[in-house]
Design goal:
By secondary structure, this protein is an alpha/beta fold. The chain folds into two domains: 7-119 and 274-282, Aldehyde Oxidoreductase, domain 3 (Alpha-Beta Complex); 122-271, Alpha-Beta Barrel (TIM Barrel), CATH 3.20.20. It contains eleven helices and twelve strands. The protein has helices at 7-20, 27-32, 54-64, 93-124, 142-151, 169-176, 182-192, 205-214, 226-236, 253-257, 268-271, and strands at 38-45, 49-50, 69-72, 79-80, 85-92, 130-132, 165-167, 198-202, 218-222, 241-245, 263-265, 278-282. The strands form three sheets. A six-stranded parallel β-sheet has the order 6-11-10-9-8-7. Strand 10, helix 10 (253-257) and strand 11 (263-265) form a beta-alpha-beta unit. The longest helix is centred in the middle third of the chain and has 32 residues, at 93-124. The radius of gyration is 23 Å and the shape is elongated.
Length: 283
């Protein structure tokens, strides 16, 4: 198991993606490459970045053809430069070519997430603030994408809806329709799940004050300016964990961190990370 990636899950995802691509029916390769022709391919980084997803790429080639040999030249988490060789693939050339795109799609996507996460983590270096991800992930790929966040130096927030309580704006809107508010929300959550800390999303100082008075153990400060965040930090005085989120960029993340929060969550590291350019070159 690699940082929480189970081989059975990797196999399932590999098989699903290969079936989607109909890799076992690659008509171009079937027309051109005899089944007994052996070959060697090298996965090469086309630009600088952080590698993540090598176990997933290996699982794709294994699912395509167990006789393919996949050798890593670096490990997940390694920083690579343009032109650097990342892995070598050897075996039946037809199988290698049929699985090539699927393996690269996973590797490029996850490496892109790790690379962007690392850039945010670098901006936060020395502040003591922890970078977190969100649930804004690709359906079906959350475990992989959150793995890539960890590889890049970030921390996972909630893996799924059963992983923690987060009272968001729409929850509160539904409660207000019944004449209830933040205090009741915290009480109801604590009553239903007494062992779980309650985090409440707030958008301004007044809402933060109300959530603190209700006894919330954590606040998610959504789209708040650094100056207002600092006011909430002073108000909380350590009574609740504070997490800033919304509108966080590489340009302003350090300024937000200096406002005094413990955590900063960035949805962009999973939903908007550009893929790291990688290619497979047949030798």
């Amino acid at each position: 198991m690699e940082l929480g990636l189970h081989p059975a899950q990797l196999r399932r995802l590999a098989e699903q993606a290969l079936m989607e691509d109909r890799a076992y029916e690659d008509i171009t390769t079937a027309a051109l490459i005899p089944s007994d022709q052996q070959g060697r391919g090298v996965i090469v980084a086309k630009r600088e970045g952080i590698i993540a997803g090598l176990p997933m790429a290996a699982a794709v080639f294994e699912a395509m053809d167990p006789s393919i040999r996949f050798q890593t030249l670096v490990q997940d988490g390694a920083k690579v430069v343009a032109g650097q060789e990342v892995a070598v693939v050897e075996g039946p050339l037809a199988s290698i070519l049929a699985a090539e795109r699927t393996a690269l799609n996973y590797l490029q996507r996850l490496s892109g997430i790790a690379t962007l996460t690392a850039r945010f983590a670098e901006e936060l270096a020395g502040t003591g603030v922890v970078l977190r991800d969100t649930r804004k992930t690709t359906p079906g790929l959350r475990t992989l994408e959150k793995y890539a966040v960890r590889v890049g130096g970030g921390q996972n927030h909630r893996l799924h809806l059963a992983d923690g309580i987060l009272v968001k704006d729409n929850h509160l809107a539904a409660l207000r329709a019944r004449g209830l508010g933040v205090t009741e929300a915290v009480h109801l959550c604590r009553q239903a799940y007494p062992q779980m800390p309650v985090q409440v999303e707030v958008t301004n100082f007044k809402e933060a004050q109300e959530a603190l008075e209700a006894g919330a153990e954590a606040l998610l400060l959504d789209n708040m300016a650094p100056a207002e965040i600092a006011q909430v930090v002073a108000l909380a005085r350590g009574r609740a964990a504070l997490e800033a989120s919304g509108g966080i960029t590489l340009e302003n993340v350090r300024e937000v961190a200096k406002a005094g929060v413990q955590y900063i969550s960035v949805g962009a590291i999973t939903h908007s990370a550009p893929a790291l350019d990688l290619s497979l070159e047949v030798a």
